[in-house]
């Protein structure tokens, strides 16, 4: 089902020195299902995160933000699937705090050194007893090589695990970056996605890491959408263990840019993998908006096109009914848009220019691009110099089937 | 397919004195298909219209606005299906103008006294020759009793004709209000819908009628959504022929309010019929947002819920996965929303209060409401006194099928 989603062979998934991962079956929602994951992070690791802007922020998101703000060194992450612990009020907050307390006790840490993450159904109580009962098994399972099993264990409606791993040489050191993500529906991250975890063995001070994490999210997880539904639990975390020997102290450090680019490339890969494995997706679409007057209006147009059910179903059918794209551009909310400046390309095919069908455009040419699994679309607004790119997928029968049946 | 859409018996569809309607087969897109409709309006009729705010306004919309602004007495409407004449540039403008010119010539009018309307595929040239060839037949067919055939002839992906007809007694006169609408996809009117035509035989001065039309659109066609896609061709027209003898000159006229309410009720009925016949719809949902701080935020929340593919597919499946509604409320864009003030009812079932699942809520109760064809939902925000209501439908396999195949 997934669109060109590549799972690297195990030999190319590099462990990150200073990170161990353990997995267990808690049976949160379904029995005999690996749904609990624990990360243990080496001393002196720095951790940064960005979280959903949904006003119904789940309890674990609130606890994460509080623990990150407390200044305590984060040393563990606890992730469950099967239940989002969102819309659960004070009781939900207690569940998230008890999870941290129990994990801290088993690992010899303070509760504030643990970050909790939950994903699954909203508005239902999370069975704390099952989670706590499985924690010792997850901790017994801790190992550096568990990235791929972890990518499996954080899946919900995902059909494929999502892993990115790369190495770079910098300052005489081999630096590793490995990460995992999950998510297939309720995807329009607004800070980050539900969920992304990356680690590197470079050393990065906490404040710089926080800044990098925000900027990386803005060009990766914050540029994807499946259905326009921003989740209550979006969380994206970067861990820097420092074990490689490379240390990057500021944006002017000699290897800062190379490290930033490598982290950003991994994050973009993980974000795009969410779109590639989106519920029901058969096509991966890149929507680039050029010549905008501002980033805001470029994104308004890109998201209007990316969210239009009419555009998405037309791409599913490879039906070059491309007036639907112009309609979406027109209602995107750019109040003073002069449509006579608008051009539209599908791949290398110029569909519309000066706000109307280009005289040389032939539907066969549009359809040829639409039949591909990877569809680049470019919209030029004729208003300025700003470009933005958003990644999305088509909208198929299977999206409806999956979401009509998700809980049953 | 349509959800409780009632087609009145012919005996209850009242002609409006001063309005004649003629229909013909132009074969704009498909041969042997009634796709051309002409309205002839009696002398001294007043006409008002509201039109799409999509920046890609179709050529006929632009011509309508220009002719209405010209101050000439509007005496005819020409409506074609099969092609929207949108995204067609200068050539499209000429087609719309030539249509008015030809109709005016046949009817003994000036071109500026004719309003053109088009609906169908965007970004393709409208075959003017076929339209002009069929105009004489449509005019030969002019008759007062043609409202139901006209409701048929303006359909595109609609499965049912949409007619509303009512009478009121005022000032010793029997006043008739009859209207038709069309639309099933690309429906999130932003001024009006694609397309609505109403007529009354009351007399209403042009300026007052324009004001009433705007206010009526804001509580009817501007409160429905199927897929969030605002069309390039939305147009809503009210004609007042004055033939009944009742004259309403200002908002303080004795029968103003009764006439306004009756017109508004007809418009709401026609707007709701579009939702009832929406592409693939199996359920009709009324989303009422109470206790908002402003109309704007009430509508933000109502539309976020109404557009969420996850909410719409859950209702299709009668799956009480109602956390999806809270998630949509949370991402609607009310930046300072305190979720602990939010309550949610499905029918008479209190699902959530204080931002979390209500302790007495049982899924069977939620599901009982979801299994109905008519689903009232109420959201209280706990922020103020403002209420707004939006009407929408669920999201089914058939929506995808219809929109993946629309042109084939």
Describe how the helices and strands are arranged.
The structure is a homodimer of 408-residue chains.
Chain A: E1 19-25, E2 34-41, E3 46-51, H1 59-69, E4 76-83, H2 89-107, E5 114-121, H3 128-140, H4 147-153, E6 162-170, E7 173-181, E8 194-200, H5 206-218, E9 235-240, H6 256-276, E10 284-292, H7 295-307, H8 309-316, H9 323-331, E11 343-346, E12 349-353, E13 356-357, H10 363-370, E14 374-380, E15 386-393, H11 397-405
Helix pairs in contact in A: 1-2, 2-3, 7-9
Strand neighbour order, sheet with most strands of chain A: 13-12-11-14-10-15
Q: Count the E strands of chain A.
A: 15
Mean pLDDT of chain A: 90
Structural class of chain A: alpha+beta
Q: Give the C-alpha Rg of chain A.
A: 22 Å
Query: Quick one: overall form of chain A?
Result: globular
Beta content of chain A: 25-35%
Provide an overview of this structure:
The structure is a homodimer of 408-residue chains. Chain A is of the alpha+beta class and 408 residues long. Helices cover 32% and strands 25% of the residues of chain A. Chain A is built from 11 helices and 15 strands. In chain A, the strands form 3 sheets. The first copy, chain A, has a 6-stranded mixed β-sheet with strand order 13-12-11-14-10-15. In chain A, a hairpin with a 2-residue loop joins β6 and β7. In chain A, α7 (295-307) packs across α9.
């Amino acid at each position: 089902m997934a669109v060109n989603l590549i799972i690297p062979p195990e030999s190319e998934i590099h462990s990150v020195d200073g990170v161990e991962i353990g997995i267990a079956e808690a049976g949160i929602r379904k029995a005999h299902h690996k749904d609990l994951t624990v990360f243990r992070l080496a001393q002196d690791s720095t951790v940064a995160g960005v979280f959903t802007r949904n006003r119904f922020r789940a309890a674990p998101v609130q606890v994460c933000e509080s623990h990150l703000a407390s200044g305590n060194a984060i040393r563990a992450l606890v992730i469950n699937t099967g239940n989002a612990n969102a819309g659960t009020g004070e009781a939900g907050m207690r569940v998230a705090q008890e999870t941290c307390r129990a994990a801290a006790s088993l690992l010899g840490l303070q509760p504030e050194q643990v970050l909790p993450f939950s994903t699954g159904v909203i508005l239902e109580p999370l069975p704390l007893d099952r989670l706590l009962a499985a924690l010792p098994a997850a901790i017994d399972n801790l190992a550096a090589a568990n990235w791929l099993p972890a990518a499996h264990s954080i899946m919900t409606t995902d059909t494929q695990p999502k892993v990115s791993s790369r190495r770079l040489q910098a300052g005489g050191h081999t630096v590793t970056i490995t990460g995992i993500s999950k998510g297939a529906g309720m995807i329009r991250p607004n800070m980050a996605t539900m969920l992304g975890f990356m680690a590197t063995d470079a050393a990065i001070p906490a404040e710089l890491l926080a800044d990098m994490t925000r900027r990386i999210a803005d060009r990766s997880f914050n540029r994807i959408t499946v259905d326009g539904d921003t989740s209550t639990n979006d969380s994206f975390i970067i861990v820097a263990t420092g074990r490689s020997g490379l240390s990057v102290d500021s944006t002017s450090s000699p290897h800062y840019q190379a490290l930033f680019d490598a982290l950003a490339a991994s994050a973009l890969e993980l974000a795009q993998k969410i779109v590639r494995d989106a519920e029901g997706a058969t096509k991966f679409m890149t929507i680039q908006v050029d010549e905008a007057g501002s980033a805001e209006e470029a994104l308004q147009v890109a998201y209007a096109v990316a969210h239009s059910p009419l555009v998405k179903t037309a791409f599913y059918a490879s039906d070059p009914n491309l007036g639907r794209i112009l309609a979406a551009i027109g209602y995107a909310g750019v109040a003073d848009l002069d449509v006579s400046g608008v051009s539209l390309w599908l791949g290398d095919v110029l569909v519309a220019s000066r706000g109307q069908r280009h005289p040389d455009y032939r539907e066969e040419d549009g359809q040829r691009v639409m039949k591909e699994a990877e569809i680049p679309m470019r919209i030029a607004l004729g208003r300025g110099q700003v470009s933005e790119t958003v990644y999305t997928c088509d909208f198929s029968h299977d999206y409806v089937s999956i979401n009509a049946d998700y809980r049953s």
